[in-house]
Design goal:
The complex is a heterodimer of chains A (389) and B (548).
Chain A (H helix, E strand, L loop, with lengths): L1 H11 L11 H26 L6 H15 L18 H10 L8 H22 L4 H19 L10 H8 L10 E3 L9 E5 L2 E8 H7 L6 E7 L2 E6 L2 H17 L13 H14 L1 H4 L13 H10 L4 H11 L10 H14 L42
Parallel strand pairs in A: 1-2
Antiparallel strand pairs in A: 2-3, 3-5, 4-5
Helix pairs in contact in A: 1-5, 2-3, 2-4, 2-6, 3-4, 3-5, 4-5, 5-6, 5-7, 10-14, 13-14
Chain B lengths: L7 H19 L4 H5 L20 E2 L13 E8 L10 E3 L2 E5 L5 E5 L5 E5 L15 E3 L2 E5 L4 E6 L5 E6 L14 E3 L2 E5 L10 E6 L5 E6 L29 E3 L4 E6 L20 E6 L6 E7 L15 E7 L2 E9 L4 E6 L5 E6 L15 E3 L13 E3 L4 E13 L20 E14 L4 E8 L8 E3 L3 E5 L4 E6 L5 E6 L9 E5 L2 E8 L9 H4 L2 E2 L4 E2 L5 E7 L2
Parallel strand pairs in B: 1-28
Antiparallel strand pairs in B: 2-36, 3-4, 4-5, 5-6, 7-8, 8-9, 9-10, 11-12, 12-13, 13-14, 15-16, 16-17, 17-18, 19-20, 20-21, 21-22, 23-25, 24-25, 25-26, 26-27, 28-29, 29-30, 30-31, 32-33, 33-36, 34-35
Classes of the chains: A alpha+beta (389), B mainly beta (548).
């Protein structure tokens, strides 16, 4: 049961975060995590393939596999059996990678891998207590199945790809110190790692040395010879190329997509918010929303501040609904608060949609970061604000 | 011009005299000028006139007999992006003032004509306010809303140096008027409601180089640190908003630290929360300040009732004995008198309605008085030795306080653990005269509007103050009778000052839009004033008054 619950968790952990390339040590961390898993698998497979008398050697193998997976900081670590891993354990490495602000394209895969490590550890724990050989083997077989998912496969770039999939298809595959270039074009020099939207599109290597330098976990889908270089395209390259084509098309047609088309409010709400703003906000925040006694609430001045302070839509909502108007917080009706928030979003050139801004908080708002909107088409280009009608 | 008309023979002598006179006029205040500022009726060179912090003048031209004829000499409109809180600095015929958004003006003291005007467009964190400039050695110093300390050429307004003086510009700004002392500029950081820790800094007035910081919340291992539960001290607040008083003879600086944070949630910061809501006497003779004594007015405050009134050092008679005292006032509606040497409480007087002060804000909500902008505000009071009386304007409001029981730090936003209270009931004010000898009211006026303008007293028996309804009023110091008033038709949130120019005494005050804290629905409806009604103004004005 616990295994299933954990897997479900891993699937739910598919969150879409801000673009963040892998920190240099994340690549090394992923490789070390993989090495620990493989050490654990080797322990289990070796005892299964061999022959031993009595419980001792079997128990020992399960404990050593456990040690490699959980690391010496975990309660499940039993030092007396020895550790075929590096001491930090797969779990330790994965936790270090996940214990950072923001998320990356590879985060779901690594979260999934972590869930499967926990499931494997659960099965090993169960094996420690088994009396019958049959039961012991069943536990270890389940653990091996979990670990197969942890390792994953390079051909899969989502949560099912495991650590290999993340290494083979995302920025996690780029070693520290190697420059990454835009994957939409061929590199000026090699070796180079081509990246598009956190996807690893290709690894370009000089032909002479390619045979010895192709990364282990690369998911090569296509190989192109380009002069003296080999361009090894990954499984992720197809979807990445689609992104390249779309971007190029947008640039050619100078599309005027008004802001990020996230429909957080309706135009009707924003319209109703005009009256609320005039009555309760204008005196301090000004007719042009640039602030008089209070701060600016729209345009470059506001959105730059929002970006600096990492404000989310949830922060904006809380400030408006709970702290405003300053002289009488909480004095407006929920509808008035929703309307005036819609008015503020519209004034900041966020696009309107069909779904109204809710009168109660939404957990999703905490993940929406506010900041300048490059694609916006402001009616006041100097302040970069939009007039609400 | 003069020299040309005079025969060459005597030019030498005359020019010698002229030069010495000129140099006396063109030089800038010296360390002695600041120490003796209370004896110089021509100029006003420190925020509250002298290092004592007491807005009080002796031997003035304006008396209770002639104040009734006081007339507007000039009025100059300045940048009106927010309320004016500026305390004018006056030196040799020039008045230096600031707008809420840090514009700086040099005005002619006799005509109000703008000599120069330096504009500024700061990033505003929460609200706009500035309490004025400091003057020294040919420079005008201003601390800004975006955390800078800027030195301008006093003659032209051009920038001489400009430093980032706030440690964290996302949650710290400056409203305080810098205070020149010896080679230093003293400046407190306004970060007490945004998740910072208060600090008082000293900067080299010549270069802007930081000399020291004194933090208002004791760090690990420092005395007082245990008054904060867990890690709560890290965002403990206790900002320094208002002015300081200094005793130059002993190098003692008196400063009030503001309320603890999160403002309305005490459960996550159990303890007294030092040095929040305290007056601290610092020895500033050494390389870094050391605490001589502290007196905490409201331990573990959960209502943002900080001691907003700048300290006033004075020698008063209590129980028949002359004592060195220091006065304070807080937004909780208390006027405090302490022994200046030890910090021991002499007594305190409630100057505003007090109710429900011991209940921490909760989900249900409770009424407590004063409201968050109530009690004694940031311009404070004035002591008149002639009558042994202290004059304190105050705000009388109650509020409904709530707290959800949690506080989340969001960079650049209020860190309150609740919301600012809602005004409950009327919004009025008091002008109180307190007999220092007995701690009892000499007289008291209940006024229709909050009184935050601060008091200026003249030994001739007059007290000036301004209300947020725009009335600028001269009271008889002995009786509280109104001797003179002038409707500015703008809110007065700035303190009155006085200077002399061209042989005449002037009284000066700034007025402007209501701003965030003192906006009042009555303004739009023609609120009652001594003169008639008040209509909300969008102008900001410096007005000087003189006798005809």
């Amino acid at each position: 049961m616990r295994t299933i619950a954990l897997r479900l968790l891993a699937v739910f952990a598919l969150v879409c975060g801000a673009p963040a390339s892998a920190a240099p040590d994340d690549h090394a961390g992923a490789l070390a995590a993989l090495a620990d898993v493989r050490a654990a698998v080797t322990e289990i497979v070796r005892i299964e393939d061999g022959y031993a008398v009595g419980h001792g050697p079997y128990l020992r193998a399960a404990h050593r596999a456990m040690n490699a997976l959980v690391g010496r900081r975990d309660d499940g670590y039993a030092a007396s059996f020895g550790d075929p891993g590096d001491g930090a354990g797969t779990l330790g490495h994965l936790d270090t990678m996940l214990d950072k602000e923001g998320s990356s394209l590879w985060t779901p895969a690594i979260e999934g891998a972590k869930a499967n490590v926990l499931a494997a550890a659960d099965n090993l724990q169960s094996a420690f207590g088994e009396k019958e050989m049959e039961d012991y083997q069943a536990d270890l077989t389940r653990a091996l199945a979990n670990l197969a998912l942890v390792v994953g496969r390079p051909s899969q770039d989502g949560v099912l790809g495991g650590i290999s999939g993340a290494l083979g298809n995302t920025t996690l595959g780029v070693p520290a110190g190697i420059p990454s270039v835009s994957g939409c074009a061929l590199p000026a020099r090699t070796p180079a790692y081509g990246i598009v939207a956190q996807r690893l599109v290709y690894v370009a290597l000089p032909r002479r040395s390619a045979a010895t330098t192709i990364p282990d976990e690369l998911s090569v889908a296509r190989v192109v010879v380009q002069g003296d270089d080999l361009i090894l395209y990954t499984r992720a390259s197809d979807s990445a190329m689609a992104v390249c084509r779309r971007t190029a098309h947008l640039q050619r047609t100078r599309a005027v997509a008004p802001a990020k088309a996230v429909p957080w409010y309706t135009a009707a709400q924003a319209h109703d918010g005009i009256a609320v703003y005039r009555k309760s906000c204008l005196q301090c925040h000004g007719a042009d929303l640039q602030g008089t006694a209070g701060p600016a609430v729209a345009g470059t001045e506001f959105l730059t501040t929002a970006k600096t302070n990492k404000w989310t839509l949830s922060d904006l909502r809380t400030t408006v609904f709970q702290n405003m108007p300053f002289s009488n917080p909480g004095s407006l009706t929920p509808k008035q608060y929703a309307d005036v928030t819609a008015f503020l979003l519209a004034s900041n050139c966020y696009a309107a949609g069909t779904k109204p801004f809710p009168q109660s908080d939404s957990p999703a708002f905490a993940a929406i970061k506010l900041g300048p909107i490059p694609a916006a088409n402001p009616s006041n280009p100097k302040l970069r604000t939009c007039t609400v009608k | 011009m003069l020299r040309k008309a005079i025969p060459l023979v005597i030019v030498a002598i005359v020019s010698l005299v002229a030069v010495s006179r000129l140099s006396a006029q063109s030089t800038w205040p010296t360390a002695d000028s600041y120490v003796n500022a209370d004896k110089d009726n021509a100029n006003w060179i420190l925020p509250a006139r002298s290092y004592t912090g007491n807005r009080y003048l002796t031997s003035t031209e304006i008396t209770s007999a002639n104040v009734g004829t006081l007339k507007k000499a000039w009025a100059t409109n300045i940048d009106a992006r927010g309320p004016l809180e500026t305390s004018p600095i006056v030196w040799n015929g020039t008045v230096y003032v600031t707008s809420s958004h840090n514009d700086v003006y040099a005005l002619d003291a006799q005509t109000g004509a703008v000599k120069w005007h330096r504009t500024y467009k700061p990033h505003v964190i929460a609200f706009s306010a500035n309490r004025g400039v400091a003057l020294g050695d040919g420079k005008v110093y201003e601390a800004t809303l975006d955390g800078h300390l800027i030195a301008l050429d006093a003659g032209t307004g051009k920038t001489v140096w400009n430093i980032v003086a706030a440690h964290d510009t996302t949650n710290t700004f400056f409203t305080m008027q810098p205070v020149p002392y010896k080679n230093m500029l003293l400046l407190g950081a306004s970060n007490g409601d945004w998740g910072g820790i208060g600090y008082l800094s000293a900067f080299d007035a010549a270069t802007g180089k930081r000399i020291w910081d004194w933090k208002t919340v004791p760090g690990i291992g420092e005395p007082g640190h245990n008054s904060w539960a867990g890690d709560s001290w890290k965002r403990g607040g206790a900002a320094i908003w208002s002015g300081v008083a200094i005793d130059p003879a002993s190098n003692t600086l008196y400063v009030d630290a503001g309320n603890p944070q999160p403002d309305f949630l005490g459960t996550i910061r159990k303890g007294a929360n030092l040095y929040s809501n305290s007056m601290v006497a610092l020895d500033i003779s050494g390389a870094t300040p050391t605490v001589k004594w502290y007196h905490q007015f409201i331990p573990h405050d959960t209502h943002d009732w900080d001691p907003a009134m700048p300290p006033v050092l004075f020698s008063g008679t209590v129980g028949g004995a002359q004592r060195n005292l220091v006065a304070a006032g807080d937004k909780g509606g208390n006027f405090w008198v302490l022994d200046a040497g030890t910090g021991a409480l002499v007594y305190h007087v409630a100057v505003s309605t007090q109710k429900g002060q011991n209940t921490e804000p909760n989900r249900k909500g409770d009424v407590a008085c004063p409201n968050t902008n109530g009690g004694v505000e940031f311009n404070g009071g004035s002591y008149m030795p002639d009558t042994n009386a202290f004059f304190v304007p105050s705000v009388d409001q109650c509020g409904l306080w709530t707290s959800p029981g949690t506080a989340t730090y969001v960079s650049g936003q209020f860190f309150l653990g609740g919301a600012f209270p809602k005004l409950v009931g009327p919004s009025t004010g008091y002008m109180s005269a307190i007999d220092i000898g007995s701690g009892k009211f000499l007289w008291r006026k209940h006024l229709a509007f909050p009184q935050i303008g601060g008091a200026l007293s003249l030994s001739s028996g007059i007290v000036f103050t301004g209300g947020v309804n725009g009335d600028f009023t001269a009271y008889d110091a002995k009786t509280g009778n109104v001797l003179w008033h002038h409707p500015t038709n703008q809110t007065i949130q700035a303190p009155p000052g006085s200077y002399s120019a061209g042989g005449k005494q002037y009284v000066i005050v700034a007025s402007g839009p209501a701003g965030i804290n003192f906006a009042d629905p009555r303004f739009g409806q023609g609120a009652p004033t001594l003169e008639g009604t008040y209509t909300h103004s969008t102008k900001a004005t410096i007005t000087a008054f003189t006798l005809p």
